[in-house]
Structures are given as structure tokens and as C-alpha cells.
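Input chain follows. Return C-alpha cells only.
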Amino acid sequence: MVDLSSTPRVHLLGVGGAGMSAIAVVLRGLGCRVSGSDSADTPVLDRLREIGVDVHIGHQASHLAGADIVARSTAVGDENPEIAAARQAGIPVYRRAEILAAITELRPTVAVAGTHGKTTTAAMLSHILMAVGADPGFVVGALLADGMIGARWSNSPLFVVEADESDGTFGELAVDRAVLTSVEPDHLRQDRPPDELEAEFARFCAGVANGLVVCADDDGAMRASQGSNRVLYGTGPEADYRWRPVGRSRESIVGEVTRRGELIAQMTVPMPGDHNALNATGALAMACELGADESEAAAALSGFGGVTRRFEHRGEAAGVDFIDDYAHLPTEVACALKAASDGGWNRVVCVFQPHRYTRTSQLWESFAHCFEAADEVIVTDIYSAGEPSIPGVSGELIWRGVKEAHPDWDVSYVAGLEDVADRLVRGLRRGDLCLTLGAGDLTQLPDWVIPRLSERQ
């Protein structure tokens, strides 16, 4: 176990990423001296400099001078010169998850877990708790919508953390309470088939000390939490906290929340989509279970600013709106497109970038039906996220699966993002929504297309 009680000097590799920058913020809040390195300068690194993090661009052994411990993101391999230098010098090298686990030992921790929805739910819960005066610390695995790093440290005896299942390390956290949003096949490997992933979530649930808040609408979450001390949220009669929508727009969804049949709050969720309303209900349920006033907690949600790449409005040009979303699993894609279809645009033009060769090879058939709410779909090649390619696996595999299942759908395969941008500039029309979906670098597309469309006005 990492010992943070002596406030050591910590050096973080990959410090500009969402996960490691959040760790840097918390470590600084604890009083640690923090340095870090990354391959390129970004606005995130400027924010870290502002709070006293010694930031280096590039990777050199000299960056470790004075460090007591080193931590790295999953993107940093053993070949990194700073890793080699740390081992040669006898400086302990830890994974991000081990540092986060040590932080959760310092405060009663509320973890938000699930294969999708956890980032938004953790951010919503943190926002509610701050608004009602609970003053929590938190770590969210994405930048907040205002561009701020998704983390803070406080003296409050309460810490909210997004618990990541991607490498199984969420089971290492010391968790007092937890929200479980969903359990679906993802991050699968030969040694981690769907049954094993669900078993990992079941072990996580069993390790929660003082109760779970679980989405009753998700079969996987219900199976994984079976036998646990749990409170349910959702849209059906079995939910303790039950959401019922009464109105929606492009920007929000409005509804009522009952608890065991009694109306406790009217709630405005400032994000479209039934999936985001479910996330908000889960956050509200946990806040109430922690003792927050129901009406105050619900009212706080209306001021939630959102999270980057979660149905994030990126701009408008020539009468075309651009929204970017991190959705990269079939259920997430379907939910994002359903939210878009409720917005009243003339057409929804979706660009989908598959994420990882392994995920595509395992799940490509599951994408066949998830684009129903789009008027036009462009599938790009795969964003590798550092993985080696797999023969026969490309974005074309998903395109063929969709076309075979739905020959009449307007779906095409355009491998390169620059070619996609050219096509969008030619084909987008006033009144369209251009929705970019995926966890990779297609988030650049709106920045490429908007200026070119603006020149046409």
C-alpha cells in the first residue's frame, strides 16, 4: 500500500491525461510535492502549473530528481526512460489505481462504478453534494464542461470517486458506499470473458461496506449486486427512487422522482436523454441516502454544468449544430442517438469512430442495430488507443454488419478523419445536427469542419 501520510514528493507520468491530472490535484490538496511529465503541452498542464505542479514536457531521467515515489498512467509503458530511471534508482513505481486506492483509505469513499454512465453520475453526485454544503473531495475521470480538471480535495469526511473497471483495479479501492450504473460486456480479453467481468463487479459490490445504490433498469447491474444491501433507482415499479419524465427539450429533460411511492422532488436535468435522467436519478438517490435534503438536492442538479465529451455542444456554423459525445459502446451509441433524435433537428448525421481493435473484434455484431435513430451514419476506421492491429478487423467490419442488417440505412465507411471532414463540409445542410461519437481523436472533427462551414455563410 502506498503511504501518503508523510506527504511524499510524487512524480506522475502522463500527468496531462484526465486520470493523472485529477490525481495531481488531489495530491497537491494533501500537501504533497508533485511533479509530472507528458509528451505535449496542453491547457490542462497550465492548470496544473497554477496549483504548483512542476510540469515537464517530454520524458527524461532528470525529471525524477527528488521524487520519493513514481506513478504512471496505463498509457505509459516499461520502455519509458523515466520508468527505467526510477527502477535503476530504487524509486517505487506505482499504477494510478494504487495511488487512488491509497487516497480512498484517507476518507469514507463513495464510488461510482459501471460500464457506462459512471463519469456523468460521479460528476452529478459531486455537484449535488457541493451545492448542499457537504463539501466533498472527488475524482472524476474527465474534464468538467468548464475545462476544469475533474478533481478536488477537501477536509470534509466524504470523497467521491469514479471507479474504473477497465483493468480490474476498481476492486482495490476502499469503498464505503457505491453507485452501480450498469454492467455490460466491455474491456474483454481472453482471460476476461463477459462472465468474469460480471463476477468482478459482483466482488466489487460485495466489498462495499455500507450499501449500494443500483440501477434497477440494468439487468447486469442487478445480477452483479444480487444479495447486497442495495437501494434501487430507475423507471420501473421495483425502483425505490423512481424517475418519470414529464417534458424534454434539446437542452434538458424534466420529471418527477418518487421514493417508495411518495413524490420527493421535481427535477430538471440540464442534459437531454433518458440515460442522463437515469444518471441524475442515481446521483440524487445516493445524495439522499447520504442525508441530503431531497428538494435541495434535486434543485442543485439544474445548475450542473456537464462533463466534456458527454453530449457536449461544440458550436454552430451555417445552420448546423455540432455535438460531441464519448459514446463508444452499442448501448451508449443508441442512447446518444435517441437523445439527438428528440432534439427536433432536420437530420441527425452521425460520425462513429470505433475504439480499440480488441473491442471491435468482440462487439462488432452488437453495433448492427444501434444507429436506428440516425438519418445518416459515417463509420471511420478504428482508433487503436495504442493497441496493435488485428488482421481483418477495421471500421469496415462494423459498417458491413450494419448494412447487412439494415440495407436501406444510409451508412457508409470513410476510413480517414480528413476525408470525413471533406464529406461533412460538402454534405451537411442547414438544420442538421452533426453528432460525433467515440472515445478517440474524432473529437477534433468539429474544430476542423466548423471554420470551413463558416466560410460558406
